[in-house]
Amino acid sequence: MKKYNFFAGPAILPESVLKQASEAALSFGDMGLSILEISHRSKQFSAVLEEARALSKELLGFGDDYEALFLQGGASSQFFMIPMNILDQNETAAYVDTGNWSAKAIKEVKHFGNVEVLASSKDTNYNYIPKGYAIPDNAKYLHLTGNNTIFGTQYHAFPETNVPIVCDMSSDIFSRTINTEQFGMIYAGAQKNMGPAGTTLVIVRKDMLGKVNREVPTMLDYNTHIGKASAFNTPPVFPIYVSLLTMRWVKEQGGVAAMEIKNEEKASVLYDEIDRNKLFKGTAAKEDRSLMNVTFVMNDEYKALEPAFLELCTNEGCMGVKGYRTVGGFRASIYNAMSMEGINKLVSLMQQYETEHA
Question: Which class would CATH give 15-252?
Answer without folding.
Answer: alpha beta
